[in-house]
């Protein structure tokens, strides 16, 4: 498994999970041709979880870059 940006295995998993979740939602939204049963609250909750994972990965990459510059 290739982990870009020197991510830990856990960070890489979170980033991959966020990407797969976004892909899944894109597919589901594309398939819905009628009024959706999704509520704004459901979509908001989903996006909050995904953004949390992505935020943690970004913070880790920034910290790693700062440590490399300082070192």
Q: What is the mean predicted local confidence, pLDDT?
A: 80
* Order of secondary-structure elements: HH
> How many strands, which pairing sense, and closed or not: the largest β-sheet?
none
In terms of DSSP E residues, the strand content is under 5%
The counted number of beta strands is 0
What separation lies between the terminal Cα atoms? 27 Å
Structural class: mainly alpha
Specify the helix fraction band: over 70%
Radius of gyration in whole Å, from Cα? 16 Å
Q: What oligomeric state do the depicted chains represent? A: single chain
Global geometry: elongated
Number of helices: 2
Low-confidence stretches: none
Could you give the topology of this structure?
Elements: H1 9-31, H2 40-70
Helix pairs in contact: 1-2
Give structural notes:
α1 runs antiparallel to α2 (40-70). The model has no long low-confidence stretch (mean pLDDT 80). This protein has two helices and no strands. It is elongated. It has 71 residues and is mainly α. The two termini are 27 Å apart.
């Amino acid at each position: 498994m290739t982990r870009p940006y020197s991510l830990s295995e856990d960070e890489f998993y979170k980033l991959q999970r966020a990407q797969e979740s976004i892909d899944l939602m894109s597919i589901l939204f594309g398939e819905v041709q009628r009024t959706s049963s999704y509520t704004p609250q459901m979509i908001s909750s989903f996006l909050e979880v995904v953004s949390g994972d992505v935020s943690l990965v970004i913070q880790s990459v920034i910290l790693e870059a700062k440590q490399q510059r300082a070192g």
